[in-house]
Design a protein that fits this description.
alpha/beta; 9-stranded mixed β-sheet; 13 helices; 34% helix
Length: 382
Protein backbone atom coordinates (compact mmCIF):
# COMPACT_ATOMS: atom_id res chain seq x y z
CA UNK A 1 0.00 0.00 0.00
CA UNK A 2 1.39 3.40 -1.01
CA UNK A 3 1.63 6.36 1.34
CA UNK A 4 -1.01 9.12 1.26
CA UNK A 5 -1.35 12.45 2.99
CA UNK A 6 -3.79 15.29 3.48
CA UNK A 7 -2.32 18.20 1.51
CA UNK A 8 -4.93 20.77 2.46
CA UNK A 9 -8.37 21.26 4.00
CA UNK A 10 -11.19 23.75 3.61
CA UNK A 11 -14.54 24.33 5.26
CA UNK A 12 -17.38 26.81 5.08
CA UNK A 13 -18.85 29.13 7.62
CA UNK A 14 -21.47 26.94 9.33
CA UNK A 15 -24.86 28.52 9.97
CA UNK A 16 -28.50 27.58 10.52
CA UNK A 17 -29.30 28.89 7.05
CA UNK A 18 -26.79 29.74 4.35
CA UNK A 19 -29.25 31.56 2.12
CA UNK A 20 -26.36 33.42 0.47
CA UNK A 21 -25.26 30.33 -1.47
CA UNK A 22 -26.79 27.39 -3.34
CA UNK A 23 -25.67 23.80 -2.74
CA UNK A 24 -23.09 24.32 -5.47
CA UNK A 25 -21.86 27.56 -3.92
CA UNK A 26 -21.66 25.94 -0.50
CA UNK A 27 -19.46 23.15 -1.84
CA UNK A 28 -17.24 25.52 -3.81
CA UNK A 29 -16.65 27.65 -0.72
CA UNK A 30 -15.04 24.64 0.97
CA UNK A 31 -13.36 23.31 -2.18
CA UNK A 32 -11.72 26.62 -3.09
CA UNK A 33 -10.32 26.95 0.43
CA UNK A 34 -8.99 23.37 0.33
CA UNK A 35 -7.24 23.93 -3.01
CA UNK A 36 -5.63 27.12 -1.75
CA UNK A 37 -4.58 25.45 1.50
CA UNK A 38 -3.04 22.56 -0.46
CA UNK A 39 -1.39 24.83 -3.01
CA UNK A 40 -3.02 22.77 -5.78
CA UNK A 41 -4.63 23.91 -9.04
CA UNK A 42 -7.67 22.27 -10.65
CA UNK A 43 -5.66 20.49 -13.42
CA UNK A 44 -3.75 18.61 -10.71
CA UNK A 45 -6.93 16.97 -9.35
CA UNK A 46 -7.37 13.47 -10.81
CA UNK A 47 -10.74 12.47 -9.30
CA UNK A 48 -13.53 13.73 -7.04
CA UNK A 49 -15.25 11.82 -4.23
CA UNK A 50 -18.42 13.41 -2.85
CA UNK A 51 -20.45 12.41 0.16
CA UNK A 52 -23.65 13.52 1.84
CA UNK A 53 -26.24 12.12 4.19
CA UNK A 54 -29.63 10.74 3.04
CA UNK A 55 -31.06 12.63 0.08
CA UNK A 56 -34.35 13.09 1.97
CA UNK A 57 -32.54 15.52 4.29
CA UNK A 58 -32.83 18.08 1.49
CA UNK A 59 -35.34 16.46 -0.82
CA UNK A 60 -32.93 16.48 -3.78
CA UNK A 61 -32.23 13.04 -5.16
CA UNK A 62 -28.69 12.27 -6.36
CA UNK A 63 -27.46 15.87 -6.10
CA UNK A 64 -23.99 14.82 -7.25
CA UNK A 65 -25.34 14.71 -10.80
CA UNK A 66 -26.28 18.38 -11.06
CA UNK A 67 -23.27 19.35 -8.90
CA UNK A 68 -20.67 17.60 -11.10
CA UNK A 69 -19.61 20.78 -12.89
CA UNK A 70 -19.38 22.83 -9.70
CA UNK A 71 -17.35 20.08 -8.03
CA UNK A 72 -14.80 20.18 -10.83
CA UNK A 73 -15.70 16.63 -11.87
CA UNK A 74 -16.31 17.21 -15.58
CA UNK A 75 -13.95 14.89 -17.43
CA UNK A 76 -12.84 13.28 -14.17
CA UNK A 77 -14.04 10.22 -12.26
CA UNK A 78 -16.79 11.18 -9.80
CA UNK A 79 -17.77 8.82 -6.98
CA UNK A 80 -20.69 9.33 -4.58
CA UNK A 81 -20.43 7.84 -1.09
CA UNK A 82 -23.31 7.35 1.37
CA UNK A 83 -23.07 5.86 4.86
CA UNK A 84 -25.67 7.96 6.72
CA UNK A 85 -24.18 10.42 9.24
CA UNK A 86 -20.71 8.89 9.00
CA UNK A 87 -20.54 9.68 5.28
CA UNK A 88 -18.03 12.52 5.66
CA UNK A 89 -15.55 10.11 7.23
CA UNK A 90 -16.34 7.44 4.65
CA UNK A 91 -15.74 9.95 1.85
CA UNK A 92 -12.31 10.78 3.24
CA UNK A 93 -11.47 7.09 3.68
CA UNK A 94 -12.53 6.25 0.12
CA UNK A 95 -10.47 9.12 -1.27
CA UNK A 96 -7.47 8.03 0.80
CA UNK A 97 -7.86 4.45 -0.43
CA UNK A 98 -7.86 5.56 -4.07
CA UNK A 99 -4.55 7.31 -3.47
CA UNK A 100 -3.00 4.58 -1.33
CA UNK A 101 -3.94 1.99 -3.96
CA UNK A 102 -2.13 3.99 -6.63
CA UNK A 103 -5.28 4.63 -8.68
CA UNK A 104 -4.94 8.42 -8.51
CA UNK A 105 -2.22 10.86 -7.46
CA UNK A 106 -4.43 13.63 -6.05
CA UNK A 107 -8.10 13.25 -5.08
CA UNK A 108 -10.52 15.96 -4.00
CA UNK A 109 -12.92 14.81 -1.27
CA UNK A 110 -15.95 16.96 -0.47
CA UNK A 111 -18.99 16.47 1.77
CA UNK A 112 -21.88 18.80 2.49
CA UNK A 113 -25.37 19.35 3.87
CA UNK A 114 -27.87 22.14 3.42
CA UNK A 115 -30.32 21.16 6.14
CA UNK A 116 -32.22 24.43 5.94
CA UNK A 117 -33.77 23.32 2.65
CA UNK A 118 -35.62 20.44 4.28
CA UNK A 119 -36.29 18.92 7.71
CA UNK A 120 -33.93 16.17 8.87
CA UNK A 121 -36.06 15.18 11.87
CA UNK A 122 -39.06 14.29 9.73
CA UNK A 123 -36.85 12.78 7.06
CA UNK A 124 -35.70 10.37 9.78
CA UNK A 125 -39.26 9.65 10.84
CA UNK A 126 -40.49 7.92 7.68
CA UNK A 127 -41.70 4.34 8.04
CA UNK A 128 -40.04 2.04 5.50
CA UNK A 129 -41.59 -1.44 5.25
CA UNK A 130 -40.50 -4.02 7.84
CA UNK A 131 -38.67 -1.53 10.08
CA UNK A 132 -39.59 0.02 13.41
CA UNK A 133 -40.66 3.69 13.11
CA UNK A 134 -38.56 6.24 14.98
CA UNK A 135 -41.05 9.10 15.05
CA UNK A 136 -38.85 11.40 17.10
CA UNK A 137 -35.73 12.08 15.05
CA UNK A 138 -32.21 11.19 16.11
CA UNK A 139 -32.57 12.55 19.65
CA UNK A 140 -35.52 10.35 20.48
CA UNK A 141 -33.75 7.36 19.01
CA UNK A 142 -30.47 7.75 20.92
CA UNK A 143 -31.78 8.96 24.31
CA UNK A 144 -32.64 5.41 25.52
CA UNK A 145 -29.09 4.29 24.64
CA UNK A 146 -27.69 7.15 26.72
CA UNK A 147 -29.93 6.12 29.64
CA UNK A 148 -28.59 2.59 29.31
CA UNK A 149 -25.03 3.92 29.45
CA UNK A 150 -25.76 5.91 32.59
CA UNK A 151 -27.35 2.89 34.25
CA UNK A 152 -24.49 0.54 33.31
CA UNK A 153 -21.62 2.91 34.11
CA UNK A 154 -23.16 4.60 37.18
CA UNK A 155 -22.13 7.93 35.67
CA UNK A 156 -23.24 11.03 37.59
CA UNK A 157 -25.88 13.14 35.89
CA UNK A 158 -23.71 16.21 35.25
CA UNK A 159 -21.28 14.50 32.84
CA UNK A 160 -23.26 15.45 29.76
CA UNK A 161 -23.30 19.08 30.82
CA UNK A 162 -19.53 19.04 31.38
CA UNK A 163 -19.00 17.87 27.80
CA UNK A 164 -21.36 20.51 26.46
CA UNK A 165 -19.56 23.31 28.29
CA UNK A 166 -16.17 22.08 27.07
CA UNK A 167 -17.17 21.74 23.44
CA UNK A 168 -19.12 25.01 23.22
CA UNK A 169 -16.21 26.92 24.77
CA UNK A 170 -13.86 25.20 22.31
CA UNK A 171 -16.19 26.20 19.50
CA UNK A 172 -15.80 29.84 20.54
CA UNK A 173 -12.15 29.51 19.45
CA UNK A 174 -13.15 28.23 15.99
CA UNK A 175 -14.08 30.98 13.49
CA UNK A 176 -16.02 28.50 11.31
CA UNK A 177 -18.19 27.07 14.12
CA UNK A 178 -21.96 27.49 14.02
CA UNK A 179 -22.37 27.84 17.80
CA UNK A 180 -19.80 29.97 19.59
CA UNK A 181 -20.66 30.33 23.29
CA UNK A 182 -17.66 31.35 25.41
CA UNK A 183 -19.87 32.30 28.36
CA UNK A 184 -21.71 28.98 28.64
CA UNK A 185 -21.65 27.43 32.13
CA UNK A 186 -22.50 24.14 33.79
CA UNK A 187 -25.47 25.84 35.46
CA UNK A 188 -26.84 27.29 32.21
CA UNK A 189 -26.66 23.89 30.49
CA UNK A 190 -28.42 22.18 33.39
CA UNK A 191 -31.11 24.87 33.33
CA UNK A 192 -31.84 24.40 29.62
CA UNK A 193 -34.98 22.58 28.50
CA UNK A 194 -35.14 18.79 28.60
CA UNK A 195 -35.67 17.50 25.06
CA UNK A 196 -35.29 13.72 25.35
CA UNK A 197 -34.47 12.57 28.87
CA UNK A 198 -31.58 12.88 29.76
CA UNK A 199 -30.58 15.08 26.78
CA UNK A 200 -31.10 18.79 27.38
CA UNK A 201 -31.31 21.54 24.77
CA UNK A 202 -27.70 22.69 25.34
CA UNK A 203 -26.44 19.09 25.19
CA UNK A 204 -27.50 18.51 21.60
CA UNK A 205 -26.07 19.46 18.21
CA UNK A 206 -27.43 22.28 16.04
CA UNK A 207 -28.85 21.89 12.55
CA UNK A 208 -26.32 23.44 10.19
CA UNK A 209 -25.68 24.28 6.57
CA UNK A 210 -22.07 23.67 5.66
CA UNK A 211 -19.44 21.80 3.68
CA UNK A 212 -15.92 20.46 4.08
CA UNK A 213 -13.28 19.51 1.51
CA UNK A 214 -9.82 17.96 1.49
CA UNK A 215 -7.10 17.35 -1.05
CA UNK A 216 -5.43 13.98 -0.53
CA UNK A 217 -2.23 13.18 -2.39
CA UNK A 218 0.33 10.43 -2.78
CA UNK A 219 3.87 10.49 -1.40
CA UNK A 220 5.28 12.38 -4.38
CA UNK A 221 2.55 15.00 -4.16
CA UNK A 222 3.09 15.34 -0.42
CA UNK A 223 6.85 15.70 -0.78
CA UNK A 224 6.33 18.32 -3.50
CA UNK A 225 4.14 20.38 -1.19
CA UNK A 226 5.72 23.45 0.28
CA UNK A 227 3.71 23.13 3.50
CA UNK A 228 3.43 20.52 6.27
CA UNK A 229 1.07 17.65 5.43
CA UNK A 230 -0.87 15.14 7.53
CA UNK A 231 0.29 11.62 6.75
CA UNK A 232 -2.53 9.07 6.80
CA UNK A 233 -1.16 6.28 8.97
CA UNK A 234 -4.26 4.09 8.97
CA UNK A 235 -7.96 4.00 8.09
CA UNK A 236 -10.77 1.70 9.23
CA UNK A 237 -14.41 1.18 8.29
CA UNK A 238 -16.90 -1.24 9.86
CA UNK A 239 -20.67 -1.70 9.61
CA UNK A 240 -23.36 -3.62 11.46
CA UNK A 241 -27.18 -3.74 11.17
CA UNK A 242 -29.28 -1.23 13.06
CA UNK A 243 -31.05 -4.03 14.92
CA UNK A 244 -30.04 -7.63 15.49
CA UNK A 245 -30.14 -10.13 18.34
CA UNK A 246 -27.49 -9.15 20.86
CA UNK A 247 -26.89 -5.65 19.47
CA UNK A 248 -25.17 -3.46 22.06
CA UNK A 249 -26.28 0.12 21.41
CA UNK A 250 -24.04 1.45 24.19
CA UNK A 251 -20.82 -0.21 22.96
CA UNK A 252 -21.43 -1.24 19.31
CA UNK A 253 -19.36 -4.14 18.08
CA UNK A 254 -18.65 -2.49 14.70
CA UNK A 255 -17.19 0.58 16.38
CA UNK A 256 -15.06 -1.48 18.75
CA UNK A 257 -13.72 -3.70 15.99
CA UNK A 258 -13.02 -0.73 13.71
CA UNK A 259 -11.01 0.90 16.48
CA UNK A 260 -9.02 -2.25 17.18
CA UNK A 261 -8.22 -2.64 13.49
CA UNK A 262 -7.25 1.04 13.28
CA UNK A 263 -4.85 0.91 16.23
CA UNK A 264 -3.23 -2.26 14.90
CA UNK A 265 -2.78 -0.79 11.42
CA UNK A 266 -1.34 2.42 12.87
CA UNK A 267 1.03 0.55 15.18
CA UNK A 268 -0.61 2.00 18.30
CA UNK A 269 -0.72 -0.15 21.42
CA UNK A 270 -1.92 2.42 23.99
CA UNK A 271 -4.30 4.94 22.37
CA UNK A 272 -4.65 7.11 25.48
CA UNK A 273 -0.90 7.60 25.65
CA UNK A 274 -0.11 7.74 21.93
CA UNK A 275 -2.94 9.88 20.53
CA UNK A 276 -2.35 13.60 21.11
CA UNK A 277 -5.80 14.87 20.07
CA UNK A 278 -9.08 13.24 19.04
CA UNK A 279 -11.92 14.61 16.92
CA UNK A 280 -14.81 12.31 17.86
CA UNK A 281 -18.36 12.39 16.44
CA UNK A 282 -20.42 13.55 19.44
CA UNK A 283 -23.90 14.82 18.38
CA UNK A 284 -25.23 14.52 21.94
CA UNK A 285 -22.85 15.31 24.76
CA UNK A 286 -23.21 11.94 26.50
CA UNK A 287 -21.66 10.23 23.49
CA UNK A 288 -18.20 11.49 24.44
CA UNK A 289 -17.76 9.09 27.38
CA UNK A 290 -19.55 6.33 25.45
CA UNK A 291 -17.21 6.60 22.46
CA UNK A 292 -14.12 6.97 24.66
CA UNK A 293 -14.89 3.45 25.84
CA UNK A 294 -15.88 2.10 22.41
CA UNK A 295 -12.62 3.42 20.93
CA UNK A 296 -10.46 1.89 23.64
CA UNK A 297 -9.37 5.08 25.41
CA UNK A 298 -11.05 3.86 28.61
CA UNK A 299 -12.40 0.61 30.00
CA UNK A 300 -16.14 -0.01 29.84
CA UNK A 301 -17.90 2.12 32.45
CA UNK A 302 -14.92 4.46 32.96
CA UNK A 303 -15.13 6.90 30.04
CA UNK A 304 -17.05 9.45 32.11
CA UNK A 305 -14.18 9.57 34.62
CA UNK A 306 -11.86 11.04 31.99
CA UNK A 307 -14.48 13.71 31.31
CA UNK A 308 -15.03 14.52 34.98
CA UNK A 309 -11.27 14.76 35.61
CA UNK A 310 -10.94 17.33 32.82
CA UNK A 311 -8.69 15.08 30.77
CA UNK A 312 -10.61 15.72 27.54
CA UNK A 313 -10.19 19.49 27.66
CA UNK A 314 -7.54 21.35 25.68
CA UNK A 315 -4.47 20.91 27.86
CA UNK A 316 -5.72 17.60 29.25
CA UNK A 317 -4.37 14.12 28.71
CA UNK A 318 -6.54 13.60 25.59
CA UNK A 319 -8.07 16.78 24.17
CA UNK A 320 -11.36 15.79 22.52
CA UNK A 321 -13.00 18.04 19.92
CA UNK A 322 -10.91 21.19 20.34
CA UNK A 323 -12.79 22.50 17.29
CA UNK A 324 -16.08 22.35 19.19
CA UNK A 325 -17.09 19.18 17.36
CA UNK A 326 -20.56 18.21 16.22
CA UNK A 327 -22.05 19.96 19.26
CA UNK A 328 -21.03 23.25 17.64
CA UNK A 329 -21.44 22.56 13.90
CA UNK A 330 -23.57 19.82 12.37
CA UNK A 331 -23.95 19.87 8.59
CA UNK A 332 -24.71 16.15 8.78
CA UNK A 333 -23.14 15.02 5.51
CA UNK A 334 -19.99 17.00 6.26
CA UNK A 335 -19.79 16.45 10.04
CA UNK A 336 -17.67 13.31 9.75
CA UNK A 337 -15.26 14.90 7.27
CA UNK A 338 -14.93 17.88 9.59
CA UNK A 339 -13.69 15.49 12.27
CA UNK A 340 -11.13 14.04 9.86
CA UNK A 341 -10.10 17.45 8.51
CA UNK A 342 -9.76 18.97 11.98
CA UNK A 343 -7.54 16.04 13.01
CA UNK A 344 -5.35 16.74 9.97
CA UNK A 345 -5.27 20.47 10.75
CA UNK A 346 -4.01 19.70 14.24
CA UNK A 347 -1.00 17.68 13.11
CA UNK A 348 -0.26 20.22 10.36
CA UNK A 349 -0.30 23.00 12.94
CA UNK A 350 -3.09 24.88 11.14
CA UNK A 351 -5.87 24.82 13.75
CA UNK A 352 -5.50 28.45 14.79
CA UNK A 353 -6.79 29.39 18.22
CA UNK A 354 -7.92 25.83 18.98
CA UNK A 355 -4.54 24.30 18.15
CA UNK A 356 -3.39 21.68 20.65
CA UNK A 357 0.23 22.31 21.51
CA UNK A 358 2.54 19.50 20.43
CA UNK A 359 -0.11 17.59 18.48
CA UNK A 360 1.70 15.02 16.36
CA UNK A 361 -0.77 12.11 16.11
CA UNK A 362 -4.53 12.60 15.83
CA UNK A 363 -7.71 10.55 15.51
CA UNK A 364 -10.62 11.38 13.21
CA UNK A 365 -13.86 9.49 13.98
CA UNK A 366 -17.38 9.36 12.57
CA UNK A 367 -20.45 7.22 13.09
CA UNK A 368 -23.83 7.13 11.41
CA UNK A 369 -27.21 5.48 11.15
CA UNK A 370 -28.38 3.63 14.22
CA UNK A 371 -24.80 3.43 15.54
CA UNK A 372 -24.11 1.08 12.65
CA UNK A 373 -21.59 2.81 10.35
CA UNK A 374 -18.14 3.62 11.72
CA UNK A 375 -15.28 5.41 9.97
CA UNK A 376 -11.90 6.32 11.46
CA UNK A 377 -8.42 7.41 10.58
CA UNK A 378 -5.14 8.22 12.28
CA UNK A 379 -3.03 11.03 10.86
CA UNK A 380 0.40 12.17 11.94
CA UNK A 381 2.89 14.91 11.24
CA UNK A 382 5.55 12.45 10.07
Amino acid sequence: MMLAAVLGTGQTQHRTRRTDVSMAGLCREAIDRALIDAGVEWPQIDAVVVGKAPDLFEGVMMPELFLASSLGAVGRPLLRVHTAGSVGGATANVAATLVRAGVHRRVLAVAFEKQSESNAMWALSIQPPFTAPIGAGAGGYFAPHIRSYIRRSHAPGHIGALVAVKDRRNGALNPYAHLRQPEITLESVQASAMLWDPVRYDETCPSSDGACAMVIGDQAAAEASGRPVAWIRATAMRTEPTFFAGKDHVNPRAGFEAAQALWQAAGISDPLEEIDVAEIYVPFSWFEPMWLENLGFAEAGHGWKLVEAGETRIGGRLPVNPSGGVLCSNPIGASGMLRFAEAAMQVMGRAGEHQVEGARVALGHAYGGGSQFFQMWVVSSS
